[in-house]
Amino acid sequence: MEEKTIEKVLNRISEERTLDSQELKVLKEVQQRQSQGMQENQKQISAIRLEMGNLKTGQEILLQRITDPIRQLEELGEKIDRNSELMKKTLTQKVVHEHHVPKLFYATVVLFCICLCFSFGWFQTGQRLNQYRNNDTKWRKLLLDARPALTIIMQGTATAVDNDPDKAREAVEKQEAHNRQVWELHQKMLADSAQMRALEGTNKKQN
After folding, report:
1. At what angle do helices 165-206 and 148-163 cross, to 10 degrees?
2. Is residue 151 over pLDDT 60?
3. What gap in Å lies between CA 45 and CA 39, rounded to an integer?
4. How far apart are alpha carbons 65 and 201 in whole angstroms?
């Protein structure tokens, strides 16, 4: 009796295992189908995205094709407006005369100016040299004709001027100013004395 029950139990277990294995097979088949479906869905989604990208680029191209003529029309309208404003203004014609002077003329003018400057400098140098020679001749003639005392004074003056020209010139200017003051005082005294004599003469006539 016990052997029969054991066999029954074993048969049930084997049947249950076979059922479980069948269910596992079914589940595996379902999972495979689901994974295949998911892969197909992903492919469809990528294809849809690609089509959407193509549609977007097509829309951008179409929009650019539409906006380009509009922009060109706006630019043409602005140009027409500017031209109409220019047409309203009076046209003034200005003639500009351009004189093309050759470079040789400029070179000739520059050379002439340089020669003129050299000639003027040469003339000034010659004049100063002649003046120096004349002054030297005068000085030597005065030394020859002057008395010994005057000769000593003249030689001392020449030495002082050679040693310190500024100091000698300052001394000469001071002496000239002093002599001028003395002369002015002398002239004033003469005028006062003449006025006094005139007053005395009028007083005598009145008496």
Report:
1. 130
2. yes
3. 10
4. 127
Question: Residue 125 falls within a domain, yes or no?
Answer: no
Q: Nearest-CA neighbor of 188 among 180, 176, 198, 177? A: 180
Contact by Cβ (8 Å): 146, 154: yes
Split into its structural domains, the chain has a count of 2
User: How does DSSP classify residue 90?
Assistant: P
| Alpha-carbon dihedral 33, 38, 43, 44, rounded to 10 degrees | 100
Domain boundary among 74, 104, 127: 74
Q: Please count the other Cβ atoms lying within 10 Å of the Cβ belonging to residue 20.
A: 10
pLDDT in tens, 66-125: 777 777 777 877 877 777 766 666 656 565 555 555 778 788 888 888 888 888 888 888
